[in-house]
Known about the structure:
Blueprint: E1 24-29, H1 33-49, E2 57-62, H2 68-76, E3 83-91, H3 97-116, E4 120-127, H4 130-135, E5 137-139, E6 142-143, H5 144-156
Parallel strand pairs: 1-2, 1-3, 3-4
Antiparallel strand pairs: 5-6
Bound molecules: ligand DLZ.
The site of ligand DLZ has 15 residues, from strand 3 and helix 3.
Amino acid sequence: MASSNKHLSSYSERNLTDISKKKFALIVSEWNSDITEALYMGAYNMLIKHGASKKNIIRKNVPGSFELPLGAQWMAKQKNIDAVICLGCLIQGETRHFDFICQAAAYGITQVSLKYNKPVVFGVLTTNNKQQAYDRAGGKYGNKGDEAAITAIKMMGF
Ligand code: DLZ
C-alpha cells in the first residue's frame, strides 16, 4: 500500500470540532525515544494549535509499544478523558519480535477504543529502518504525531 505521499498533516483543517474543553491522554513509548519524542511534540503542538488547553493534555510514558494498549486502557477508563493518542516506533529487526509487537499493539489499541467507546489513536510507526522513521517523524513525509492528533480531533467530531 503506497501511502508515503498521503498524510493527514496536510489535510483540511477547517470544520474541526471545538476541543478547548476536551481532555487528551498521550501515551508515549520509550523505545526509539528520539523518534517518539518527535511524534509527541507533533501531536502536542497540533492539539494546542487547534485550541486544546495545556492543562488538558496528559502525558504518560510506557517502556515499549507492546505496553501501549495497557497504558491506553488505564487512561481511557477515566471518565474525564475524551481521547487517547498512542505514540510508538517499531523498527524491523532480524527476528519476528517486530511482527508480534506490531500485531499486539494494533490489536490491543483497537480493543481499548471499542471497549471504552472513545477515540484511541494508533500513532505507531512500523518501519524497516530508522531513516523511514525519521522521514515520518518531522521529515519528508510529515509527522505522524500531527496526524494522530488530527485523527483524534476528527473522531471527536464524528
Ligand atoms: C523488545 C522490543 C524490540 C525488539 N523492539 C522494539 C521497537 O522497535 N519498538 C518498541 O516500541 N518496542 C520494542 N521492543 C520493546 C517491546 O515493545 C516491549 O516493551 C518489551 O517486549 C517488554 O514487554
